[in-house]
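Action item from last week, closing it out:
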Amino acid sequence: MINNNPVLDKVLISQIKKILLKSDKLSSQILAGEYKSAFKGTGLNFESIREYQHGDEIKNLDWKVTARMQSPYIRQYKEERQMTLLLVIDLSASSHFGTEEKTKKELTVELASILAFLAIKNNDKVGLMIVSEDVELYLEPKQGKAHIFRLIKELLTFKPLYKTTNIKKSLNSVIRLSPKHSIIFYISDFLDNPNQIYASEKTLINNPEQLNYNHEIKILKKTQDLSLVSIRDPKEFFLPNLGFIEISDPETGHRSSLNLNRKINREYISELQNSQREAFKAEVKKLGVKLLELSTDKNYLIELQKFFLKK
């Protein structure tokens, strides 16, 4: 669909350029070294042969050349650095929620942009997969700032066909489409169960987090460098005393009323959401997958830096 509104186009281009400039600056000043250290190349390529020097690794000796020359020679190798970064972004309806300076989607776009810049500055390719109920858009991995421009544009303007989330289905698509030995960041709030909050004031649904996509994660973990990035908003874990409110699930449209004057209701919601989060974390840890937890009210750059250093 062609947008013929020049004013809107200028606003969009300005927004993209602002994100690009910020991401370029941050990726250069803060995270470039950490990214390169965290994600090593997939192998070594033979580069040359030279005479042995004190301190060289004995295991790199080339015995045939050494025997022929009657003097020790070693084989030099160069790391095969170029890799593929695949950003899998959940843009289902719940991503638009936010009570702080940024919504979950806005934080997602900034994070994706920074990761993309870190990749191209290390000569890696970057691909994008937008998911909801299934894969809605796939941009094949490429290099260059023009490609990142398009990536950010799609993240800002793309309108998913589905409001709901199906992580299991989208992970199957990641398995099918992603190149082997890729760096994969799956960014989502991981709220793929629409009934996990409550049905009414008197009937709160206790449905602890149970991953139905363990099998898919295990498959990806064997051939890919997989990281899960959970982006949440603090008000998802704590509701203030606002009296009677109507709650609407953005993904299913289900509506229910709740009396937040009652302390027991507020405490129950907080306890339920936190227990689900802890269950999710425990399950991911059991699978041996790296998890980066971000919140719309905290500095995500510090958490990202810590995450790279841990790797």
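Closing note: Confidence is low (pLDDT under 50) at residues 194-209.
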